[in-house]
Design goal:
- The protein folds into two domains: 121 residues, Rossmann fold (3-Layer(aba) Sandwich), CATH 3.40.50.2300; 106 residues, Orthogonal Bundle (Arc Repressor Mutant, subunit A).
- It is of the alpha/beta class and 235 residues long.
- Helix content is 43%, strand content 21%.
Amino acid sequence: MVIRRTIIVVDDNRVARKTLCDLLASHGWNVQGACNALEMTKTIIENRVDLVILDISLGQSEGLRHARAVREQHDIPVVLISSHCAPLERAQWLEAGVDDYVVKPFDHRELLMRVQRVLNRYVSHSDSKNTISFRHNHIDLASGAVVHNDGRIEKLTSFETTLLKLFLTHADKVLSRDDICSALYGRSWSPYDRSIDIHVARLRRKIETKGEAPTSIRSVRCVGYVLSSDALRGA
């Protein structure tokens, strides 16, 4: 049986919202629209939602706050739509937990590709049943829970889990930023794009022991990153 994924489109522009809803519905997804964050939250509570598409024109700070709430409170992936794409803004989006983004004006095929890629990542993450250990910290790849030896519990996003799996698949191999960008985003890396560095930094903070220098995922100057198999126990 094919499961129809449910997507919420959050946009205060009625015409733009309907256009996007119709586009996504025509490709087989179950789509619901919301004109504001209140409607979005109500829909999430009342339905099983697999993805939120959030137009940042709802307000930069407000939009980021809502995106962060969706990721942290409901563990639902978010694709952001914006008419601006400055490096600082991209960094803020990723810090808020946004899984991917598109910039207006965009080709419909690009949006569809990004939506499908994020959904694939999230479903893959949800279906995983592996548990691994990094030194004294244990990670459940099914739930995204990181249990530290001091009892602290962190939660990986679906993107961070997929990034970690990529490193695990290529343990002890240096992955360039272009390798990572191609595998996770399906596009080439730009020297001005800091999204990979931000995601790796967030992943490190969650899986490493607090107060210690990162040892599991090391930076390779001018190249990228490498995960050391020495840090793994019971993988």
